[in-house]
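Running this now, will post back.
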Amino acid sequence: MNALANKPSRRAFVAGAVAAAGGLSLGFHVPFPGATAQGAPPTLAPEVNAWVVIKPDETVVIRIARSEMGQGTLTGLAQLVAEELGCDWSKVVTEYPTPGQNVARGRVWGDFGTGGSRGIRESQDYVRKGGAAARIMLVEAAAQGWGVAPSECRVEKGVISHAGSGHTTTFGAVAMAAAKVTPPKDIILKDPQDWTIAGKPVKRLDTVEKTDGSQVYGIDLNMPGLLNAAIRDCPVFGGTVKSFDAKAVEGMPGVKKVVAVGDSGVAVIADTFWRAKTAVEALPIIWDEGPNGLVSSETIAATLREGLEAEDAYVGNKGGDVAAALKGAARVVEATYGVPFQNHATMEPMNATVRWTPERCEAWAPTQNGEAALAAVAEAAGLSAKQCDVYKLLLGGGFGRRGATHDWLRQAVLIAKEMPGTPIKLIWTREEDMTHGRYHPITQCRMRAGLDEAGNVTGLHMRISGQSILVSVAPNRMVDGKDPVVFQGLNAGGAEAAIGYAIPNILVDHAMRNPHIPPGFWRGVNMNPNAIYLECFMDELAHAAGQDPLAFRLKLMEKHPKHRAVLQAVADKAGWGSKPPAGVHRGLAQMMGFGSYVAAVAEVSVDDDGTVKVHRIVAATDPGHALNPQQIDAQIAGSFVYGLSAALYQECTVKDGRIEQTNFDTYPVMRLQEMPVVETIVMPSGGFWGGVGEPTIAVAAPAVLNAIYAATGKRVRQMPVKNTDLRRA
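Update: finished.
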């Protein structure tokens, strides 16, 4: 979903606020334990506007439309609203409005999607206006009661005061009156230099519940009468169920029903998940795997190699005459790199709880996009969107898997339809989750560059061969048959993902080759492989030219000052050019994506037996504005766990049409003792809003790969690193 296209206008924002002030308080409750699901009435609190509810005890409830999955969006957006509101941060709590409520109120909360590191940067403007509007209305209510001008009043930590008369009051005391005030038409936001809550390293709002075990994730959900379901889907994508023998398991303990789920799945409903899982695993199923059962990693690789040589390709970035530049070069350097399929591997496997009746369908789900989830529920339920709703829960990991594709939620609805009125929780087993993902697209990239006699780059051709995400997930976003996401970080310009080098003759193109393994938005998306391709090849060119890798890059970056600034910052902090500890070698990389500029220097050693140890990574990011420096620091460190796990260990291979890796024993994640020291440089230059959750993942792998070359003289060109023999001769 295009977040830009769904941002509400000021008029829509004001209209929604007017509706709220006119009495459209809908009661923001989540009907799971302790609420409507157990028959308790919802608690209605007067709202000041769509974003802010202030209770008589001075609790400030801030409504957050975006999803929280560990990245800190919930706290960050609350900081922005609270900053403009002028409340006491210690009294802030949050809640999710539902997508159904958003539809009913003219999409006053805007886009519910949380992906592409857009949660804050593409909603910061209108959520800040929501907080500012609420503050103005509260002050207006107090001033009316005192008979003074609102301009003479001031706000500090939820207290409104008037110096001339000595009057003071609290937000809670005037909240009811404020809800009746006409919302302001013109809203002036604070200068970030004046922030006291936003821009500060405040503690996360969701930490306590996570650490004391009280936080409810989708997999934890319980309610009266709940039954559980486990599913097996055809292990080959595109295959179907030929037949199954329900009678073989219907008599097992706790089993309530065995049901077909679409054309390709079978589920067992039971009183407990373990009994449902045990029964579905014992269920005799005959699959029709179809022609995809003949596909393997080898056949897919052959298809991608053919794409590297194909004459036709979609052009993403073109300038000058590459063919002529290569023909006239003093030296041509060529290399081919590749990345495999990779799984999101969230700690919490896919799950959802659904209650269906012919009149209404409700779902409780950890989702990155409430509106897309609502659409999926309505379609599977056979009901209108007005007859459905989705109650969003905290996600135990998302990384893109729970955003654009809601296959698991559709399954849950179809299963619930088999037992109307009964809430049923579907949980995928780890094996089902690992073998039925939406995988990071597989690609290969062949690069050819020309160097002149002085070692300057005269031309660069990057040919990417492999999958398109959009053609499968969002074909409406294709541009004349081209997938623009493929070229992340390699674009000629723009505010999202521009290349940081001025190369006189350049061609970046894509030979689209789409295997049957379904692709998805995987944290960092195409910027990750593109950073490996570009930054490792830049390192190859520097060495071919006999130049220092940092100096070689800086020469090409004079017209790209923000790219250059983050690269120079990490080089300075890491001590580039100085002698590292014995046996340790350095590599660096830079990239621009999701609106932010990032760079890293990695310090790596490689033992005689080929074991790689990443000792230290220095990382810099310029996100324009730094909403919570502490959270940015945590995000960068966390992104390196994800990025390095993928670079060092992770791949999904295909045999007989199916994914071979079924659990973490064959799809490993970095262990605690393997984690390097991470030193961050947060250097916001202002004037724009960039993302934080994904950008730095991209520079982790190439910085480490370049350091591995410095340590061993061997280039790792096919991911993951574990497949390359780095032992000393």
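The first helix runs from residue 10 to 21. More later if anyone needs it.
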